[in-house]
Amino acid sequence: MASQLLCFLVLLTLTTICKSKSCHPNDLKGLQDFKSGIHSDTSSRLSKWIGRDCCKWEGIFCSNVTKRVVSISLPGLYTSDDAPIQSAMEGELSPSITFINYLEVIDIGDLLGITGKIPSSIGLHLPNLRKLNFVRNKFTGALPESICMLSKLEELYLQENGFSGFIPWCIGGVKNLRRMDVHSNKLSGVIPESITKLKKLESLCLQENVLTGDIPENIGNLQELKETKVYVSSLPELQSARGGIPLPSKPGKLSSLSFVRLQNNRLSGTIPSSIGYLTSLQRVSLASNQLKGSIPSSIGNLKLLEMLYLSYNQLSGQLPRSIGGISKLLYLSISHNMIEGPLPREISSLSNLQSLDLSFNRLNMSTIPKWLMQLPLLSRIYLAGCEIHGEIPDYIPKSLLELDLSANHLSGRIPAWIGSFSQLYSLNLSKNKFVSEIPSTVTNLDILGVLDLHSNKLEGSVNAVFQIKSRFAEGSLTYLDLSDNNFSTGVEQIGMGGQEYIQHLNLSHNFLKGRLPTSVETLKTLQTLDLSYNGLGANLPTSLANVTALERLMLHKNQFTGRIPEEFLKLNKLKELNLSDNLLEGKIPYGKPFLDFPQSSFSGNRGLCGKPLLPCKS
Ligand SMILES: *[C@@H]1O[C@H](CO)[C@@H](O)[C@H](O)[C@H]1NC(C)=O
Ligand SMILES: *[C@@H]1O[C@H](CO)[C@@H](O)[C@H](O)[C@H]1NC(C)=O
Ligand SMILES: *[C@@H]1O[C@H](CO)[C@@H](O)[C@H](O)[C@H]1NC(C)=O
Ligand SMILES: *[C@@H]1O[C@H](CO)[C@@H](O)[C@H](O)[C@H]1NC(C)=O
Ligand SMILES: *[C@@H]1O[C@H](CO)[C@@H](O)[C@H](O)[C@H]1NC(C)=O
Ligand SMILES: *[C@@H]1O[C@H](CO)[C@@H](O)[C@H](O)[C@H]1NC(C)=O
Ligand SMILES: *[C@@H]1O[C@H](CO)[C@@H](O)[C@H](O)[C@H]1NC(C)=O
């Protein structure tokens, strides 16, 4: 009886083994080697890869027909705020991946820690590949030329890795390529001309590499695409491309192009008048190049244009009157050029304009034009360095979100009506000649995030600013610069109000007196604290050690006394420290991060000793 039972059990086990299917040995080998290359998998997805039926493994998909593995899909997972949740893997990609020769999709993007190279024979062994996603890992090495044989490849995502070498000259062979993103790598050399053969290309991102040379002129021919109804969404962004703007010189070409993003290149020459042929354009950014000459008046033909960014170039001449015809325009930025005044009155027809940046040109405005301030939707105005004189006019719309009138010659008082800008998020009045106290009405600015009033002649107390109570529970003020003024009191209120979320606080170069209050510890997110060049005294508050986000602490040129609290050793993010020229004494706390700072961070005190200064006398 017992032997019969045993027999039965053996039989049962045997049938179970025979029934457990196995996937194709090549696929099994490829995947097993892949798994053994990975030494850390926070997602634990690979630990569930057991047995031989790899078609059942997480992230693996097989074809119903051939029963072969067609897809490896193990992307990193992201939460809504872009933080990777536990899905990172570390290890090296096994070249055995090429054994899995029916593969159509490899998606191991966003795993953050995969190293290795693209197998050089990829084009020979994986001819069915449609999508290759290696985004945000630690891959290195060159893009192998055999990539050009991947004639079915439609999507190639290699951005944010450490790939180097040239883009293969034969890239034009990947004739079904629709999307190619290789930005943020170390690719060098020229952009191969054959890229213009990729007739199906919809988007191409090459920026943040070290590519040189011109943008291939024929890129304008990607218009052939139009016939096959493929939507051209963007021209490439090339970190170090130079040469002229590759736009077609005849109407009809690239006529469905809606975005031109060529910022941060070394484009030279002028903006060609033929830009006016590209009547589908909605967004144009040519910012941060070396463009010269005037803005062509054909720009007025771009009736669909919503965003025009031309800042940081060397454009000159006047703004064309035709600009008033771009009636859909929402954002206009021409800052940091050499545009001359006067501003064309036609701008007043831009009834959709929300954001206008004319800063740092040769506009010599002398006053802020009233008609400009009457644009109904204008909510962000940047008129820094526009040679504006006189008092701040009261016709500035009270509905503004951002106002920058810095680096002008504005004088007189900061008006009390500033408190009625109930939507104001950012105010920059720095580098002017304002002489007044900060009006107490600033406490009404309850969503203010950025306040920069540095380099004026403001006086009295800074208290009002520390009494702003944010409309939001979390607080909104993150950046406060009142430095280089004539303020004399007010630090005792630091940390008393709703500034828990401030990151940057600069009160240096004033005449502030009194002590730094213990309440400074409530500024939990403070990264920069500059109180240098004032008359502050008494002991350094020990509680400052609780502001552990601090990266820069500048307290030099004051009259602080006593010891440097040992607790300051908790400030382990500190990168910059200056306590020199005070009345401090005693032993400098020993250890990181203090050991990283030079003597000049501590010199000129009454009696500090210990590293990096001379040893203390015992
Ligand atoms: C393959 O199998 C899946 C799942 O069983 C099914 O949804 C799909 O329709 C099948 N495809 C073919 C081509 O048979
Ligand atoms: C700027 O404008 C003022 C008054 O309109 C004029 O007096 C001055 O010469 C101009 N400056 C320059 C550099 O054009
Ligand atoms: C305010 O304007 C000045 C001068 O234009 C500039 O240097 C500074 O960075 C601006 N402040 C902020 C917070 O952007
Ligand atoms: C603080 O302001 C002063 C004067 O405006 C400036 O020189 C200094 O660099 C600023 N400090 C920091 C940390 O930005
Ligand atoms: C700034 O304050 C100092 C010291 O309080 C004073 O001597 C100077 O006159 C003040 N400057 C202005 C422009 O008010
Ligand atoms: C500051 O740190 C000390 C210990 O170093 C702790 O006792 C105190 O509660 C902390 N204060 C705050 C507000 O976190
Ligand atoms: C600290 O400030 C003093 C002026 O008080 C300056 O001479 C010195 O170079 C500064 N040191 C560092 C490290 O910033």
TrEMBL record:
* Signal peptide, first to last residue: 1-20
Classification via Pfam families: LRR_1, LRR_8, LRRNT_2
Chief subcellular location equals: membrane
Some GO term, biological process aspect, for this entry: which one?
A: defense response to fungus
Instruction: Show the InterPro entries listed in the entry.
Output: Leu-rich_rpt (IPR001611), Leu-rich_rpt_typical-subtyp (IPR003591), LRR_dom_sf (IPR032675), LRR_N_plant-typ (IPR013210), RLP_Defense (IPR053038)
A cellular component term from Gene Ontology for this protein is:
plasma membrane
Keywords, ordered alphabetically: Cell membrane, Glycoprotein, Leucine-rich repeat, Membrane, Repeat, Signal, Transmembrane, Transmembrane helix
Q: Where in the cell is it found?
A: Cell membrane
Question: PANTHER family annotated for this entry?
Answer: OS01G0750400 PROTEIN, RECEPTOR-LIKE PROTEIN KINASE 2
Name of the molecule in the record: Leucine-rich repeat-containing N-terminal plant-type domain-containing protein
Question: Which organism is this protein's natural source?
Answer: Solanum commersonii (Commerson's wild potato)
